[in-house]
Structure formats: structure tokens, C-alpha cells
Design brief:
The chain has 379 residues and is of the alpha/beta class. The protein folds into 2 domains: 207 residues, no CATH class; 162 residues, no CATH class. The protein has 9 helices and 14 strands. The strands form 2 sheets. Strands 1, 2, 3, 4, 5, 6, 7, 8, 9, 11, 13 and 14 form a 12-stranded mixed sheet that branches. It has a two-stranded parallel ribbon with strand order 10-12. Helix 3 crosses helix 4 and helix 3 packs antiparallel against helix 7. The N and C termini lie far apart (64 Å). Keywords: Membrane, Signal, Transmembrane, Transmembrane helix. This is DUF8173 domain-containing protein.
Length: 379
């Protein structure tokens, strides 16, 4: 039942997205860097030299071959030309009638695959018809499934009913998950009995809920020390080669710690929110990678700055004053890195402490960039 809910939710999401970008009758067509960004009520992707395709609408048709990946969302989707990379499509009705050079990921209500897939197939729908060869493995979830093609890898099938066509063969293993295992059979022409297993659908959920393997404390210690080493080295380099910048951010954040934490929260929230807003415009998708990069830079940079502030404060607390020489900077940086790593391993609340550190440091960066609090910090 959960599979049906997920399928319908994905289909509704795709239709809602298509409707939102197709509110105007006029189709928006923007080409940039060899990629095509299309949105409208009825969208037809045509033209030469398209690398990656992004298209959303009520009716989406891909009529020209592309050399890269295709990302499609709509109510009715027809892929009538070759996809040179991977295919991602979500909608109500999806008709894949052309070959895909990479993997295909499909979600909707009625899915029909008539084009050869050179990679893996992942298809989830109420009705799924596979009528073309799959060179890789296939994961199919459907209430009603029709398999009438060769699958060169393994097949995992979650279904209520399945129909095997004359052309259905699976070279690898076949795993079927169903609520009615006594009513589902796999003919020997598809795969011999020793490569076939049929399970209750609930066994799939139980398999995912298996206990985690025993903890390897040696590996965890290695990773912990590796994290301390990376953070300590980066903080040391910044303190040695940009001492003025690090000192100003330290003084500004310590002058108003609550303001710094709030600024970090607002800055990160703005960057994360911009990803959603840019994605909603479709055309703005080209800027999403820059927002993601900004989130990573502000998050990691904020943690480094927060660690440096802690280390410099500790260095001063033990009576050594503010770190100035490279040796003192390294001592402060690694001291802060160790404290941050120790906070992380505190049960239940450690993650809150680490979050406070990188929000505080991110706020110091935001305050430095915006110039807020500069006068107070100089006092």
C-alpha cells in the first residue's frame, strides 16, 4: 500500500509542478551552455545540439535527440528521440519510445517502455509495461506489470499481478515481492527456478529494517582523527595566511554572539530557500548549483571559523594570549578542532553543539561580508 501512495504522490507532484509552470499558454524556451530549459502548457523539445534537457508542462514531448540527460515532469510525457545520458521522468502517463544510452528512472501512473535502455531501469507506477531490452538491472514497482523483454542483469519486482510475455528473459536473479506469493509464478523460460525467489511484500520492509552491523570502533576512531586533522589544517592555514581576516571575524562574533548565531541562521536559510525558489522558476535552475555551492562554502567555512574562535579563546584562557606565530595558530586551531570533535560524540545533544558552532561561525562570515557590527568590534 505504501508503494501506491508513493506512486500517486510522485505523480501528483509532477502534475502540480507542470501546472504551476504552465499557467501561461506561451511556452518558455531558454537555451544556455548547450542545455535547454522549457516550460509551458504544451512543450515540445526540438532543435539540434541539445546537451541536457529540463522540461515541465502539462504535455511534454521530446522530439529531438539529446546528448546528455533528460529531466522531464508533466501530465503526459512522450520520449520520442534518443537520450544520450540518463533519463528522469515523473508524470501521469509516460511513453518511452526511444533508446536511452544511460539509466532510466520513471515514476507515474501508466508507464510504457518501448525504447532500449543501456543502463539500469527504475520504474514505479500503477501500470508498468516493459517491452524493450534492458542492458542493466531493473527495479519495477507496480500494481500491474507486463514484462516482455530481455533484462541482462537482475530483476527486483514488487507487484500484485505480473504478465510474462514471450520475449521475457532475465539473465540474472529474479526477486518478486508480492502480497499474493501463491498466485505469482515465474516461468522457466524467464529464468530457471534456482535463480528465482518469491517473497511476501512485507519481507522487503523487514529486509530494510535489519539491525545495523556491529560498530567498528577502530574505523570510527580513524574517521574521528581524520576529521580533526582536516579541520585543524584548514583552520591553521587560514589563521597563518589571513590573520587579519580571521581576527576581525573572531572579535566581531565575540562582541555579539547572539547576533552572530542569528546571522548564520538567516544566511544559511536564505541560501537554502533560494534553491527552492530558483527551481520553481525552471529557468533559474541554471543558478541552483551556485546556491548549493554557497550552502557548502558557508556551512564548512562557518564551522572552520567557529572552531578557530573556540581555539583562540582557549589559547587565551590558558594564559598564552592571542595566537600570533604559526606554531601558536596551529595549537589554537587543533585545540578547537579537538573540542568540536569531542562535542560531536556526546550522545543525544552533541549534534546541537556542532550546529551551534557552525551557525556561530557562519554568522561571523555573514557579519564580515555585510559589515554589520564592524564599529562595535573595533571598540
Amino acid at each position: 500500500m505504501s508503494r501506491n501512495f508513493l506512486v500517486k504522490s510522485l505523480a501528483c507532484l509532477a502534475v502540480a509542478l507542470a501546472a504551476s509552470v504552465a499557467a501561461a499558454e506561451e511556452t518558455q524556451d531558454w537555451r544556455f551552455g548547450g542545455d535547454a530549459y522549457l516550460a509551458g502548457r504544451t512543450v515540445s523539445a526540438t532543435g539540434e545540439n541539445i546537451h541536457d534537457l529540463f522540461a515541465a508542462g502539462q504535455h511534454v514531448t521530446m522530439g529531438s535527440p539529446i546528448t546528455g540527460a533528460a529531466h522531464l515532469a508533466g501530465q503526459n510525457i512522450v520520449i520520442g528521440a534518443r537520450v544520450g545520458g540518463d533519463l528522469y521522468a515523473a508524470g501521469q502517463d509516460i511513453d518511452l519510445a526511444a533508446p536511452v544510452a544511460g539509466a532510466a528512472t520513471l515514476a507515474g501512473q501508466a508507464l510504457t517502455v518501448k525504447g532500449t535502455i543501456s543502463g539500469n531501469l527504475r520504474a514505479m507506477g500503477q501500470q508498468v509495461r516493459l517491452e524493450a531490452p534492458v542492458a542493466g538491472s531493473a527495479v519495477i514497482g507496480a500494481d500491474e506489470a507486463l514484462i516482455d523483454a530481455e533484462i541482462s542483469g537482475d530483476l527486483v519486482l514488487g507487484t500484485k499481478t505480473v504478465t510474462w510475455g514471450d520475449g521475457a528473459t532475465v539473465t540474472g536473479k529474479v526477486q518478486v515481492y508480492t502480497d499474493t506469493p501463491g498466485e505469482v509464478t515465474v516461468p522457466s523460460s524467464v529464468a530457471p527456478a534456482e535463480r528465482v525467489s518469491i517473497h511476501q511484500a512485507k519481507e522487503f520492509e523487514e529486509a530494510k529494517a535489519r539491525p545495523a552491523p556491529a560498530r567498528n570502533y577502530l574505523i570510527e576512531t580513524r574517521d574521528w582523527l581524520g576529521g580533526v586533522l582536516v579541520v585543524g589544517i584548514v583552520a591553521t592555514l587560514l589563521a597563518v595566511f589571513a590573520p587579519g581576516l580571521m581576527d576581525r571575524m573572531r572579535r566581531r562574533s565575540l562582541a555579539h554572539p547572539l547576533r552572530a548565531g542569528l546571522a548564520g541562521f538567516v544566511g544559511l536559510s536564505a541560501l537554502v530557500g533560494s534553491i527552492l525558489l530558483l527551481a520553481m522558476t525552471v529557468i533559474g535552475l541554471v543558478l541552483v548549483p551556485f546556491s548549493l555551492l554557497g550552502v557548502l562554502v558557508l556551512g564548512f567555512g562557518g564551522y572552520i571559523v567557529g572552531i578557530w574562535v573556540i581555539g583562540a579563546w582557549l589559547h587565551d584562557l590558558i594564559g598564552r594570549g592571542q595566537p600570533v606565530t604559526p606554531g601558536e595558530c596551529a595549537l589554537a586551531a587543533f585545540g578547537g578542532a579537538v573540542i568540536g570533535a569531542l562535542i560531536w560524540i556526546i550522545p543525544w545533544v552533541g549534534w546541537l553543539g556542532v550546529m551551534a558552532i557552525f551557525l556561530f561561525g557562519a554568522g561571523a562570515i555573514v557579519l564580515r561580508v555585510t559589515g554589520i557590527g564592524a564599529r562595535e568590534a573595533m571598540v
